[in-house]
Amino acid sequence: MNREDARALMTSFLEKESLRNHCLATAAIMKALAIRMGGNPEQWELIGILHDIDYEVVGGDMQRHGNEGSRILLEQGVNEEIAGAVRRHNDLLHGKSDILVDVALQAADNISGIIIASAAVKGGKLSEVTEKTIRKKFKERSFAAGCRRENVEGITRFMDISEFFTLSLGAMQGIRSDLGLS
Ligand SMILES: [Fe+2]
Questions:
Q1: What pLDDT does 132 receive?
Q2: Percent above pLDDT 90 for the chain
Q3: Which whole-number Å values give the CA distances from 3 to 80, 100, 179, in the listed order?
Q4: How far apart are CA 182 and CA 170, in angstroms?
Q5: Right CATH for 3-173 from 1.10.3860, 1.10.10, 1.10.3210, 2.60.40
Q6: 147: CA distance to ligand 1 center in Å?
Q7: Is the dihedral of CA 19, 90, 63, 3 positive or negative?
Q8: How many angstroms separate the alpha carbon of residue 182 from the centre of ligand 1?
Q9: How far is the CA of 106 from the centre of ligand 1 (A)?
Q10: What is the pLDDT of residue 29?
Q11: Cα 103 from Cα 96, distance rounded (Å)
Q12: Are 55 and 14 in contact (CB under 8 A)?
């Protein structure tokens, strides 16, 4: 499976534009993290694209989220490494994981929302978001409150948080037209 196949599969399961963009943003960060952390960039990008594939199918049922995604992916012939990461990313079901790709996905999944919300505040201009903006919004717990800061902080075992913010922002700015941002 390549990036385009993964994207086509993801959009066939997810109608909502914001959810699609969330998956693409998470994927861009995952690819950059793989390069930084010694993971497999192509695979980590696919995991990012596919991680929430079941979101509309389970309709907010967090007891099924991730498990259902993994089942869908295995049925589509996606490998267990990808399907396993998708399953485990629901830490409410599977608990905290020490596996490198899982720590990366937890962090990418949660910072992408803060960065998208930061761009929205600036009229959709991701180019005007800086590392400083993210640092400030990260501390403001009521901002994009669904983004779990403690899951972002897991990444500090591998790099300091400001490096992670910069890396994530750069990765998302690199695909900003895909995200419908300027
Ligand atoms: Fe997600």
A1: 97
A2: 99
A3: 17, 21, 16
A4: 13
A5: 1.10.3210
A6: 10
A7: positive
A8: 22
A9: 8
A10: 98
A11: 8
A12: yes
Nearby residues of 142 by Cβ (< 8 Å), 6 or more positions away: none
Q: CA 146 to CA 139: how far, in whole Å?
A: 13
Please list the ranges in the chain whose pLDDT falls under 50: none
| Dist. CA 179 → ligand 1 center (Å) | 15
Q: How far is the CA of 28 from the centre of ligand 1 (A)?
A: 13
8 A C-beta contact, residue 47 and residue 101: yes
CA of 166 to the centre of ligand 1 (A): 20
pLDDT for residue 95: 93
> How far apart, in whole angstroms, are the C-alpha atoms of residue 40 and residue 31?
8
133, two tokens: 């903006």
Domain boundaries, the chain: 3-173
Q: How far is the CA of 44 from the centre of ligand 1 (A)?
A: 14
